[in-house]
Amino acid sequence: MTVRTRFAPSPTGFIHLGNIRSALYPWAFARASQGTFILRIEDTDLERSTQAAVDVIIEGMKWLGLDHDEGPFYQMQRMDRYKAVLADMQAQGLVYPCYMSVEELDALRERQMANKEKPRYDGTWRPEPGKVLPPVPEGIKPVLRFKNPQGGSVVWEDKVKGRVEFSNDELDDLVIARPDGTPTYNFCVVVDDIDMAITHVIRGDDHVNNTPRQINIFRALGKEPPVYAHLPTVLNEQGEKMSKRNGAKPVTQYRDEGYLPDAMVNYLARLGWSHGDDEIFSREQFLQWFNLDHLGSSAGRFDEAKLRWVNAQHLKAMDNTELATLAAEQLTRRGIASDDRLSALCGLYKDRCDTTVALADWLAPHYADVAPKAEDLAQHVTEAVRPAIAALAERLVNVNWDKASIAAALKETLAQFSLKMPQLAMPVRVLVMGTPQTPSLDAVLELHDREKILERLRKA
Fold it and tell me: N or C: which end of the chain has fewer CB within 10 A?
């Protein structure tokens, strides 16, 4: 069997980390199984669906490297197909028109709740042998309801939850077409999954209650349902379901904040799946290890501090030339042009950074003006040390511009003024980099422009 998975988001807002994890696992399973990953846009909610939301979904997936093999398919472009299947089902007696008005349904639900019964459609318009249906009311367009099986149960072996069972008597006859003839979500999903030959449905567990209804529609259409894996919810840091209302950020915002796509994939993978105690792994390792048997059954909790740590590990391990490309993008956003020193600079500073934004903070003083804090100047650039700073500046005018020669100039200046390294290095760092804490000073100065250094030291 060729594995075929899908990600089927609704474009009703931006896509956040909880959503994108439901794309990551089916993508990973398809890749790990040499299968096919399909992108399907479920855009039947015309009031809330927007092209801008579609664009953000595709942009976020592209950034994370979750490439799809087929699609995107749009449900609104498949309406003729859905209506043809509906017509076939009507001809086979699998669906029936229901003329119960919204007001009648509301009154029915109120009576059921008053009697402490589960609110559900009572089958008034369901045709049965020997049953006399009410007279068809004038001027009312009916909905179409699916004749759900009566008696027995719907059972499936979920790859996350294990055996799941729903009694058919708990499932009322689902509306699968509205009065204007447009089909509803649960019906469209089944037709899509059949037409696209989906073998595995990996999605959030908020869909569990839809699954028995969908399984019954599959079987009514003569098809066996796919394998299901219902993923536990992703919670935010407060322990609430991650959502736009609860402060979740668009996936693309993490890109802008300097996170690496491979680090995001690593972190998201661990929010509901594990490979022993491995915390940090490459995309290639993830795909080599991934299967559905190690999906977790408890909710994953987002932790931005942990994400930053994971990102820092990936940033440290990243090739300096590749990292320089991302750093250049961050500098460009600040209006700063870089040069061929950038790769070496990334190598010098990346161990101190957890995002490419933090890296760009370190790189900026090598290309743009610095404005040291007044308190740092007052603490470190004192009258006592100014003669030593001036002497160092004069020595740096003519030395070879390499780490060893700069280190020698520093040592000569320390000896001349009987200073210890921090007494000279910290004021020089403040003047040149705007901060008293940097990597080894000779390494920092070597990758700086000589004239800029002299200019900044002479301002002391």
Answer: N
Pairing of strands 162-167, 153-158: antiparallel
CATH code where residue 427 lies: 1.10.10.350
Domain boundary among 352, 367, 382: 367
Number of domains making up the chain? 4
CATH number at residue 332: 1.10.8
Domain of residue 3, CATH code? 3.40.50.620
Domain that holds residue 156: 81-177
Separation of alpha carbons 311 and 324, rounded Å:
16
pTM of the model: 0.91
- Tens digit of pLDDT per residue, the chain (460 long)? 899 999 999 998 788 998 999 999 999 999 999 999 999 999 988 788 888 889 999 999 999 999 999 999 999 999 999 999 999 999 999 999 999 988 888 999 999 999 998 888 999 999 999 999 999 998 889 999 999 999 999 999 999 999 999 999 999 999 999 999 999 999 999 999 999 999 999 999 999 999 999 999 999 999 999 999 999 999 989 988 888 777 789 999 999 999 999 999 999 999 999 999 999 999 999 999 999 999 999 999 999 999 999 999 999 999 999 999 999 999 999 999 999 999 999 999 999 999 999 999 999 999 999 999 999 999 999 999 999 999 999 999 999 999 999 999 999 999 999 999 999 999 999 999 999 999 999 999 999 999 999 999 998 8
**Residues forming beta bridges with residue 234, ordered by sequence position:** 300
How many CB atoms within 10 Å of residue 89?
A: 21
Chain centroid, CA 286 distance in Å: 16
Tokens representing 240 are 């609430």
Separation in Å, CA 44 to CA 9, 75, 200, 397, 423: 11, 6, 23, 70, 68
Residues 204, 277, single domain; the answer is: yes
Q: 166 and 233: one domain?
A: no
Distance in angstroms (rounded) separating the CA atoms of residues 22 and 197: 19
Q: Which helix H or strand E contains 438, and what residues bound it?
A: none
Q: Is 244 marked as binding a ligand?
A: yes
Residues 273 and 408 in one domain: no
Q: Which of 158, 177, 196 is the last residue of a domain?
A: 177
Structure token digits, residue 42:
């479920």
